[in-house]
Specification:
- 2 copies of one chain form a homodimer.
- Helices cover 73% and strands 0% of the residues of chain A.
- Chain A is mainly alpha-helical.
- Chain A has 2 domains: 54 residues, Homeodomain-like (Arc Repressor Mutant, subunit A); 135 residues, Tetracycline Repressor, domain 2.
- In chain A, helix 4 packs across helix 5.
- The interface between A and B is large, with 57 and 57 residues.
- Chain A binds a DNA duplex (30 and 30 nucleotides) through helix 1.
DNA sequence: TTCGGAAACCTAACGCTGTTAGACAGCAAA
DNA sequence: TTTGCTGTCTAACAGCGTTAGGTTTCCGAA
């Protein structure tokens, strides 16, 4: 029995070593360098070994995405926990999101590209979704803002952050500017959600 | 000379036929079906012929992206031209953007994936960027809202639309819901930009 | 201690990909 | 008619993800 558990341990170890090595390659050389032979070679194995730990390349990439969302969630949660005011809590968490994308551009790309199945990615992102949801319901409660559909609010905020992070990946924009855009967008959303109801829209004819 | 112009015409024709065929394959079967042999075969040629019209597969894909942004721009401009009020003009154009993504999911994916170089994509999107910029400066002028950095505003709006369109591609969200999210996000941004300056942020300590 | 079986790993190969080289046909100009 | 260019082909290259089949290694039971 002790040997069999050791085997299992070794198996799990090999699996996580593959993931770790793949992460390094991804961050250093981008998604195009992530070949099965290359990943296996980096831990001094041949390609078929990968298929004893993952059903295929897609499963390995999904594991990378899952690990990525865990890290992202941890960083967002950490920042959210340190904030003093509820508004700062939202803004800082948004900043953390964009900062993560800026610090791990290739990983962030993989976390949002069609390389990995969209629904699998969404499932992996679930903790982040919930964090954003909690964050905004907390914010709304503190400001006594009624929310008919909190999930919708969360999705808007989450999608907006992703939009700004995407802009950051464009060379002529970059992540410093994207961070400012994210800040502005979030401030605008918060202001609107607080203001909503107090102001009707005074519209004007188009020129 | 007449024969040489005919040759040029035929060359240009073959090029655009390749693009057209590639577009059809893309929309029907997705980006993974877009292989050089397949595209060439669809116009009854062999693969190497593609390299006499494009420097490589990347150039062909970029041409698809450029054509896509032209169509997107045309649809947005058309919708913007029909709007009655300045607010509707912005909202309708935003809706058109998300609707385009919903109607051409694979093309939209290609227009935003890392498959094509990010800066090339950004260049191809320039008309759309300018349209959004004009739209929002017009909106601001109509409402007498001062804008210190119109480009920043435009980027926020544009990025937000992209964020919502990205959410639409997730199966459990979908484009009908994404369209509503886009509407809500844009309304919120407009409201905030109009309200800004009139309201300070009354913040509260985090719970 | 020896034997049987399972697990781990390898080599070799398949069919696919983007891409290039070199040969061949057909047409325009000299 | 000959020369040369243009367009197209076949054949091949290296690389990809993936699978089949054989070989080694090691554990547990007889």
């Amino acid at each position: 029995m002790s040997t069999s558990t050791r085997r299992e341990r070794e198996r799990a170890n090999a699996r996580s070593r593959l993931i770790a090595v793949a992460s390094e390659i991804l961050e250093r050389e981008g998604v195009s360098a992530l070949t099965v032979r290359r990943i296996a070679g980096e831990v001094e194995y041949t390609a078929p070994v990968v298929y004893q730990h993952f059903t295929g390349k897609g499963a390995l990439l999904l594991a990378l995405v899952e690990a990525g969302y865990e890290r992202l969630h941890a960083q967002m949660a950490s920042v959210a926990g340190r904030a003093v005011t509820v508004d700062d809590r939202v803004l800082d968490t948004g900043r953390a999101y964009v900062a993560f994308a800026g610090a791990n551009p290739h990983l962030y790309q993989l976390m949002n590209d069609a390389t990995v199945d969209a629904d699998d990615r969404f499932r992996a992102a679930e903790p982040v979704t919930r964090l954003v949801l909690d964050l905004l319901t907390g914010w709304a409660a503190a400001h006594r803002v009624p929310m008919t559909d909190p999930m919708e609010i969360a999705e808007v905020a989450w999608g907006t952050m992703h939009g700004m992070a995407s802009l950051g990946q464009i060379g002529t924009i970059g992540f410093p500017r994207a961070a400012r855009l994210a800040d502005q967008a979030l401030r605008a959303l918060l202001l609107a959600w607080r203001t909503d109801g107090e102001h009707g829209v005074r519209d004007r004819p188009a020129g």
